[in-house]
């Protein structure tokens, strides 16, 4: 019953699609007439390619036809004689209305000039022919689909080219240096994003993305989850009439081969779209660890001092990774237009991948000198299946902006992982130490229900209200088998086996109101109410679980109710200059793997454990932004302040247990550590001296201050870090495009670990061929092979100096062929190169 009411609400929302509409059309049986004309930019008089002429019959409003303009801005459309409401549309321009037109013979509408739409309530566009950024009240929108360096790359690679965003060598995504970022696909949580994990984003092709919304000050319409903000990935979907598509094939070294096909067919009543992809990739990587262990002092029950010496004072590890992954993805959708204002869209997504990861670890163990050496091999086989179905209804009641939307989405994921651990002594003898089989299965299903209603009030105001329900169920099965050397068989290890089921239900209601006061001031304020229910059930026959869990309640139920206000304001200083102010309150809910109390092996000497006692963290964030545009330069900047309370992070501590050969077992467990304060500033400068050169630089600096303690150890820290990007795109002779992306991450630290700076340089070259229908590209990621994480961890009982590289330098060659799809879209180049930007 808890899910029935939202479902009924959605069904009532979709009820209008069942209404009957008149059939037939004007002029049946009459010879067609031709409607022609030319569409130009009002300021530059340059032709607008792909502008759309829409003809809607007055006698039969369901009868809609039309066409698009060619490279010269001309259109020529055949239709039946009759009376029509005509209009000409083009993205970022005001629609030209031509009501009550009677076409009894072929008609030339002449020259039609469109003006830029610069007076939208929630939007300030920074747009050009190759523009990749729009600045709105609550977000920035980056079109990364034209970035040369992402051809043959993954979604994670593409995100690493977006300002304010960083993807580290482990694949962890952060926004303004904060990893608690919410990832959405087309505005919703999705199986495409891996149910909260970012691993799936390393398998999806980047060329399926149209744009990325960076939402650092989310309005009340968005989930309150994610204290850093939201990254919303918008997938490609064409909106022009007719058939169009593209095929992209690529191959690279180390092995990186695949193909992606995008296709779209739009008629008056239907829009069919699909993306199909195949990818095969290897990921050679490496790591190095130098761990030093210290003696520990403790006191027994009689008050006597006990000094415990470690078995080894130093352990040096060298690791080599060989990752092999093969995957398929399919995104299939269809949209049906009931009439000019309402439509329903259904989409189906499926991703299948399987991979084998082999890790070889050589460990040198020292007392005073080298005492022994071990070799450990980990072979992990993973089979991953995800699918998702969604149904979306949209009804724009009129041309004034009133709109009702409803959505239903069901996602299901199934991941099976089998890992063999094999470790032997190689010096001074050659003996087997340990052999284990680990089986882990994760199953998850999500249901999402959403209804939103927008009501314009007057010309410059609007009211919005909505509901969203997210219902998640996740089951993890974890079992371990130990190899008995004497019998030569694997025996189940009951102490390390368990089943954990986790439920998270979030019901949210929101309302917001926005208005433009005069010509200078706009605001958007809102309030979101969210109720969260978390339930965890653990089944295990482990005898020593309490040694790890202590007083933790292994089965738990929690209920949270929170109010999340938001406010975004803009003041127009001048036509090309404004100031924005944003405020929002957000929540960081612990996911299932943070709450599961059962310890899971990451190696023979390290375990990860969740903490059911974790509570959500809450943040309050303020953001002040400044935008200034000149003829060839655009500056965007902001300063921000965030105060997060009850924040949690993982702490490493001793378990007091040892392996059979005397190595102390270390546990990593999360705790609420108190307060985090983050203050920072960022800026982005875009300079376009001419049509053949474009330069973009961005810089983000922030200070992170954490206050808290654990088991008497002070874990507070203050750290200042920064990262910067530089991007250039230059057109060389013979129309060869050359793009350079450079990224630098400054040093940073948390409670126990300090990380050194790292940097990477990407290059790409492309050339249009086959009458500009095809493009061949060469790109090199991490040209100097420097994108490595170097860290130093210090605790009371050990230190660790490490270096990790996820993947070595990558070289890829790709070829894209476009079918009825031009390389460049958007409004034409303005004479002063105003507001161009590209290359993120």
TrEMBL record:
Similarity comment: family membership: Belongs to the TonB-dependent receptor family.
Gene Ontology CC: cell outer membrane
Highest rank taxon of the organism: Bacteria
UniProt-recorded name of the protein: TonB-dependent receptor
Entry keywords, A to Z: Cell outer membrane, Membrane, Receptor, Signal, Transmembrane, Transmembrane beta strand, Transport
Bilayer topology annotation: Multi-pass membrane protein
Subcellular location(s) of the protein: Cell outer membrane
GO molecular function: siderophore uptake transmembrane transporter activity
Principal location: membrane
Pfam families associated with the record: CarbopepD_reg_2, OMP_b-brl_3, Plug
Alphabetized InterPro entries for the sequence: Beta-barrel_TonB_sf, CarboxyPept-like_regulatory, OMP_b-brl_3, Plug_dom, Plug_dom_sf, TonB-dep_rcpt-like
GO BP terms: siderophore transmembrane transport
């Amino acid at each position: 019953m808890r899910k029935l009411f939202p479902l009924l609400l959605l069904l009532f929302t979709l009820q209008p699609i069942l209404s009957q509409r008149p059939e037939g059309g004007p002029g049946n049986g009459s010879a067609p007439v031709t409607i022609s004309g030319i569409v130009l930019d009002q300021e530059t008089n340059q032709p607008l390619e792909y502008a759309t002429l829409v003809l809607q019959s007055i006698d039969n409003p369901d009868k809609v036809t039309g066409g698009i303009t060619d490279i010269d801005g001309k259109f020529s459309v055949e239709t039946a004689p009759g009376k029509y409401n005509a209009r000409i549309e083009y993205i970022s321009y005001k629609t030209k209305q031509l009501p009550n037109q009677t076409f009894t013979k072929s008609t030339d509408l002449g020259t039609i000039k469109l003006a830029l739409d610069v007076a939208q309530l929630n939007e300030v566009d920074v747009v050009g022919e190759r523009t990749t950024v729009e600045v709105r009240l609550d977000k920035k929108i980056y079109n990364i689909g034209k970035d040369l360096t992402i051809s043959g790359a993954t979604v994670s690679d593409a995100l690493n080219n977006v300002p304010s965003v960083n993807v580290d060598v482990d694949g962890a995504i952060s926004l303004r240096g904060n990893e608690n970022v919410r990832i959405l696909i087309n505005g919703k949580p999705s199986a495409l994003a891996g149910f909260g994990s970012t691993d799936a984003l390393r398998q999806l092709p980047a060329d399926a993305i149209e744009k990325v919304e960076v939402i650092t000050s989310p309005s009340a319409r968005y989930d309150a989850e994610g204290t850093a903000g939201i990254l919303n990935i918008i997938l490609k979907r064409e909106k022009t009439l007719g058939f169009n598509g593209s095929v992209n094939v690529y191959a690279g070294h180390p092995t990186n081969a695949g193909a992606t096909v995008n296709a779209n067919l739009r008629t008056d009543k239907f829009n069919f779209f699909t993306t199909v992809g195949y990818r095969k990739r290897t990921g050679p990587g490496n790591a190095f660890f130098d761990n030093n262990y210290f003696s520990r002092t403790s006191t027994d029950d009689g008050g006597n001092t006990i000094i415990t010496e470690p078995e080894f004072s130093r352990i040096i590890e060298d690791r080599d990774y060989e990752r092999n992954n093969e995957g398929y993805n399919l995104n299939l959708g269809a949209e049906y237009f009931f009439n000019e204002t309402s439509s329903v869209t259904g989409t189906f997504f499926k991703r299948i991948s399987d991979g084998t990861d082999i890790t070889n670890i050589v460990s040198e163990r020292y007392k005073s000198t080298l005492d022994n050496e071990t070799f450990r091999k980990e072979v992990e086989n993973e089979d991953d299946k995800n699918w998702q179905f969604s149904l979306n209804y949209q009804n724009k009641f009129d041309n004034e902006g009133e709109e009702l939307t409803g959505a239903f989405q069901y996602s299901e994921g199934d991941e099976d992982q089998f890992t063999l651990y094999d470790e032997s002594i190689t010096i001074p003898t050659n003996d087997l130490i340990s052999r284990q089989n680990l089986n882990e299965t994760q199953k998850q299903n999500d249901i999402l229900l959403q209804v939103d209603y927008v009501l314009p009030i007057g010309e410059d105001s609007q009211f919005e209200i909505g509901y969203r329900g997210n219902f998640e169920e996740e089951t993890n099965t974890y079992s371990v088998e130990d190899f008995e050397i004497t019998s030569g068989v694997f025996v189940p290890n009951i102490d390390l086996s368990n089943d954990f089921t986790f439920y998270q239900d979030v019901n949210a209601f929101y309302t917001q109101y926005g208005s433009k006061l005069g010509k200078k001031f706009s605001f958007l304020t809102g309030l979101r109410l969210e109720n969260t229910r978390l339930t965890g059930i653990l089944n295990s026959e482990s005898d020593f679980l309490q040694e790890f869990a202590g007083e933790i309640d292994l089965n738990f139920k929690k209920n949270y109710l929170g109010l999340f206000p938001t406010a975004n304001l803009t003041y127009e200083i001048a036509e090309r200059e404004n100031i924005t102010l944003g405020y929002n309150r957000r929540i960081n809910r612990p996911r299932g793997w943070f709450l599961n109390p059962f310890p899971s092996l990451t190696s023979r000497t390290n375990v990860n454990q969740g903490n059911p006692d974790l509570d959500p963290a809450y943040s309050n964030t303020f953001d002040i932004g400044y935008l200034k545009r000149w003829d060839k330069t655009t500056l965007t900047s902001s300063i921000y302040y965030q105060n997060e309370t009850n924040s949690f992070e993982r702490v490493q501590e001793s378990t007091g247990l040892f392996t059979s050969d005397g190595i102390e077992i270390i546990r990593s467990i999360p705790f609420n550590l108190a307060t985090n304060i983050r203050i920072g500033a960022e800026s982005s400068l875009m300079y376009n001296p001419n049509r053949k050169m474009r330069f973009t630089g961005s810089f983000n600096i922030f200070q992170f201050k954490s206050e808290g303690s654990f088991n008497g150890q002070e874990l507070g820290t203050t750290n200042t870090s920064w990262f910067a990007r530089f991007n250039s795109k230059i057109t060389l002779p013979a129309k060869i495009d050359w793009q350079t992306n450079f990224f630098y991450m400054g040093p940073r630290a948390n409670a126990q670990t300090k990380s050194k700076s790292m940097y990477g340089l990407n290059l790409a070259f492309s050339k249009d061929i086959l009458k500009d229908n095809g493009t061949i590209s060469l790109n090199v990621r991490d040209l100097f092979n420097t994108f490595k994480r170097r860290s130093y961890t210090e605790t009371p009982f050990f230190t660790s100096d490490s270096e990790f590289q996820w993947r070595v330098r990558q070289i890829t060659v790709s070829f894209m062929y476009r079918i009825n799809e031009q390389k460049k879209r958007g409004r034409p180049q303005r004479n002063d190169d105003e507001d161009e930007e590209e290359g993120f």
